[in-house]
Amino acid sequence: MPEHSQTIPVRGAGLGLRRSMIGETLLPQQVDFLEVAPENWIGVGGRLGRWLREHTERFPFVTHGLSLSIGSPAPLDEALVKSIKRFIGEHNIRCYSEHLSYCSDHGHLYDLLPIPFTEEAVHYVAGRIRRVQDILEQRIAMENVSYYAAPGQELSELEFINAVLGEADCDLLLDVNNIYVNAINHRYNAEAFLFGLPGERIRYIHVAGHFDEADDLKVDTHGAPVIDPVWQLLEKAYGAFGPLPTLLERDFNIPPLPELLEEVQRIRDHQAAAEIDTAANTEAGTETGSETAEGLAHVR
Prior knowledge:
Blueprint: E1 13-16, E2 33-36, H1 46-58, E3 61-64, H2 78-91, E4 96-99, E5 102-104, E6 108-113, H3 119-136, E7 141-143, H4 157-168, E8 171-175, H5 176-186, H6 190-195, E9 202-207, E10 210-214, E11 217-220, H7 228-241, E12 246-248, H8 257-299
Helix pairs in contact: 3-4, 7-8
């Protein structure tokens, strides 16, 4: 694990828990942690509430919000943030993350819209993130999002993300599929973007599938299996930052649970390979260091 592993909230390979899975039995040997959108579960009781409670008592949980709308021109919904704080406490949630985007003004737009990549937006968004962290009394993680237009752009996407994370002093939820989608749509190098992110701020990783509208247009849908280039980019992320906890997102066209668990197992396989590589590199470095020390002793 990376040097900042003491701040990583979960371990291993996770899965997004969806209501369509009710009646299924998930076992700890199949999945290491689960994720839900708090807005979909706050105040839910009855059979669904009991089902969620059964899982939060058996598995580590993280939450990935949908409607914080951190870049919105409308006032921050502090009542929502306080509800999320209660939900986190009730279910022992390990981490709260949200999208670095917005989805509302004075009403919800039901889509994730891009925040302008400007200095003004950096200061505005960072201030709102700090306020959320003050209310929650904990750090939050912001996710790099897919986007299809960049209105009023002054900064690159990478410059914007890094500036927000630094000024807000918050963490990063790294979405590998979003990097791949944006790299195709906006014609930049996915690996260079990945390596430019602050690894010490990453708390966990998302992988997902997308829709190929055209060779040069990918749409982030979470409605298909993860493709090989995204798996390869995940391997690059592990090489750069270590085998961080990674969660499979699937929101539409959800297949039977065994198919989802095959992809979760693939995450585990990549993590195990990355751990072997890390151990081998560490051992090689130790041997090289010993040889160097011996050489210096001879020189003396």
